[in-house]
Amino acid sequence: MNRRFAEAVIAVFREADRGTHVRQFARLGVRDWRRGSHWLDASGLALYCRHRVASSCLEECVPAEILNALDQRLEDNKQRIVELFRKFEAINNAFQKRGVRYANLKGFTLIPDYCPDPSLRCQFDRDFIIFYSELGLCQSILEGFWIRRHRETHGNVVEFKAGSRQVPSISDVDMFLAQADHLLRHLKSEWTRISCLVEFRTFVNARTADTKFWQDVRNQTATNAEDALPVGVAVSLATQAFGNFGPPELLGWSIEAVPKSMRLWLNRYGKTVLWSDFPRIKLYLLLDGESSNGGNVRKIIVGTLLPCTVHLGLLIPTGADRSALSSRRYGSHSSGCGATSLKAHAM
């Protein structure tokens, strides 16, 4: 990945004068933008970047072919989001009609607090929290939408694979903590989307003056270290990427909740992981080892780096088949936003 390209794109999300952004973009050529397009898509920043370029009056600094490609991505994503929302509403209506006790998690419930415009988000799935005792009922409803049980993931999360605007959702505090936890879990995997940090920062900045909210967050995390750690990691990483933000009191106690060994990893490798292209490099294994409180970390790392099972028979499409594969991104253009799934978090 071209680090200069990544740094110029990330910089446009920081608060700086237009001249600074103009100078950084001036160092990029069409070739840099072409090579960096996959990273833009994989990071979830493509449409956020297009929006930021327009709002900062930087369009003259970006090659016309790149702007046109991003504009087409935006149009494709708008159409895709409309279809996603129709299914979202239909599933919510079906749950309510059958009396399912549930709440929506992430996805459309992040609008507008974390993202002002849903068409800018690269949304992959729809998440619901349900009682485990109602999993069978939930499954029967979803099968009516051609969504079938796919697999069980971590904890009590069950994933279903998917081909009224007033919907149940969790509290703002719980949503904030869930977003921080979501970021930490992705950071300990091969894929960390910087767009999640952009959304996290957007929410924090919007709530900076809401002292009651931050006190509620502090009270809830004070009794549970597992809630405080993800917040500290998210704040630390977002600060590295975009500079200082949010209320000073949040920066203080949250970062203190991060162990020194993890802070060392964030300071040493945080930007490297965010700036790298997908699939990520294996530095996340070191962070996973630090957060595992010991255990057989060496076995986990070796097993990931040197898997015992080798999957053969990988089909590489050519010609027309290759274009069909690329169309799974933002509609018909590259973005990595084509696949969708649904997860039910059972309690």
What's the Cα radius of gyration?
21 Å
Strand order of the largest sheet: 1-2-5-4-3
Helix fraction bin? 55-70%
Mean pLDDT: 79
Number of strands: 5
Shape: globular
Helices and strands, in order, run as HHHHHEEHEEHHHHHHHHHE
For the largest beta-sheet, the strand count, sense and barrel status come to: 5 strands, mixed
Class inferred from helices and paired strands: alpha+beta
- Count of the separate structural domains: 1
Q: Topology of this protein?
A:
Elements: H1 3-11, H2 18-26, H3 30-43, H4 46-55, H5 64-97, E1 102-105, E2 125-130, H6 135-143, E3 147-152, E4 157-162, H7 172-187, H8 194-206, H9 211-222, H10 225-242, H11 248-256, H12 260-275, H13 284-290, H14 297-305, H15 320-326, E5 341-346
Parallel strand pairs: 2-5
Antiparallel strand pairs: 1-2, 3-4, 4-5
Helix pairs in contact: 7-8, 7-9, 7-10, 8-10, 9-10, 10-11, 10-12, 12-13, 13-14
Task: Describe what this molecule looks like in 3D.
- This protein is an alpha+beta fold and 347 residues long.
- The chain has one domain.
- Helix content is 55%, strand content 8%.
- The protein has 15 helices and five strands.
- It has helices at 3-11, 18-26, 30-43, 46-55, 64-97, 135-143, 172-187, 194-206, 211-222, 225-242, 248-256, 260-275, 284-290, 297-305, 320-326, and strands at 102-105, 125-130, 147-152, 157-162, 341-346.
- A five-stranded mixed beta sheet has the order 1-2-5-4-3, covered by helices on one side.
- Helix 9 (211-222) packs across helix 10 (225-242).
- It is globular and about 55 Å long.
